[in-house]
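Narrative of activities, Objective 1.

The group set out to show that a structural description can be obtained from nothing but a protein's sequence at a throughput compatible with the screening campaign. Below is one input-output pair from the validation batch, recorded exactly as produced.
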Amino acid sequence: MKTTLSVIKADIGSIAGHIRPSQALIDSVRGCIEKEAGKLVIDYYIGSTGDDVAILFCHDQGVGCRDLHQLAWDAFLKGTEKAKEQGLYGAGQDLLADAFSGNVKGLGPAVAEMEFEERPAEPFLLFTADKTDPGAYNLPIYLGFADPMHCSGLILSPKISKGFKFVILDVAFTEADRMIELHTPEDTYYIAALLRDNERFVVSAIYSRATEEQAAVASTTRLHNIAGKYTGKDDPVLLVRCQGDFPATGEILSPYSIGHLVAGFMRGSHTGPLMPVLMGSGISYFDGPPVVSAVGFCVHNGKLTEPVDCFDHPYWDYVRTKVSKKAFDIREQGFSGPAMLHYSELEYGGIVNMMEELEERFHS
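Output recorded for this entry:
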């Protein structure tokens, strides 16, 4: 059967600043979704990463289903009501429109969707990140799909070795979706040249060249492009199908052991290492560090298995210790140099006003 996976995530309120959503908020979102279980929605999963709530829908309505997006919007509104009732911080923060307009993409929440014909065994991973932007997935996706140092299937599997098609968006171009399609292995250097700029070029989707089947899809929403000002980090989501004609689960997870440096931390304006954490983990040090969760499932006839927390293993405890050291090292540098994001990423912050005031005081 053809199955659609849709993940929609938003920050709609949090305890003690940007720590984590309340259980009552999550229950309000779940109560709204449960009414459609077995009807519009075949199955679903709700989880949180940092202060964001993610809803994974499994259905047969295809990508961009208006009724499904309406359901997610209504669920986030219900959660926002509970957040306001409890006096949570940032209630409804990521809901940037006054009313639903047919699709939540462009209204604030992060969205990633793909439709496919189910294989006899259909394993996939759901990644949800907080305190960072969509470009945070660039390096792990590149390494997991294009580098045999992480994806040994590229030299061991005849189908995987045929490579993948990367669909990359220029998210600085706001008038429309401006994209390019590049192929591995022949375009590998071109892909690397684009993906080094995490704030402008973002991997949107990946397809197998052997089968033309979609392997992955990521959200590409930049909140400041929608709101015209800083409203919070973009907190992206990613869906990846694994095994068989795609990289193995472990090959997709392997790059997250690096703890690579991404945009994020306090006020979304600094550089910090991406820490792999358990689903449900809150935010702590300097409104960070940037975090990512990975939950694994199998889906069959539209029904999900129970989730497996991929970063809940002793190995990842060591990685988290390593990432903590990297976070401490770069935070010691404070606001200086590469420890804070480039001015172009701060253009919606208060520093712009400061620079405008100072401009008048320069003289020759």
